[in-house]
Amino acid sequence: MSVRWKRLLGLTVTGLWVLFIFARSALTAEESSAESAVILELLQRAIPSMTDIVVRKLAHFTEYFILGGLLYLDLRLLGRGSVLLIPGLAAGIACVDELLIQANTAGRSGELRDVLLDTAGAAAAEGLCILLRQRKGRRSNGAF
pTM for the whole thing? Predict the structure, then answer.
């Protein structure tokens, strides 16, 4: 597959992931609570002390962790990037998510702390990608 097609595929997958995030945010409070309840019940089988608020915050972090990884791959394919670019892009997407979608959805509210949590998820993914790439580089150089 050519680099051009890899770039297109990567950007398409990232765009679809952003749409997935926005679709989850467009659920009413009742619909979102029902989804969280299902996940909570599953998690409580393994971790009995798991709470609804922890599940919801983990969902934020996880959605944006995946987004951060996708953005990292996209920027690598595009030959662009800086350490602040991925958290910046994620923060912008999180602001749209919280302030334009959730704040205007029945029973939901836009929260600055969620924007910060989302941004942290993307930054954590970027950090992990950088560490893995450095480790791979050291291995290929015979250091490991």
Answer: 0.89
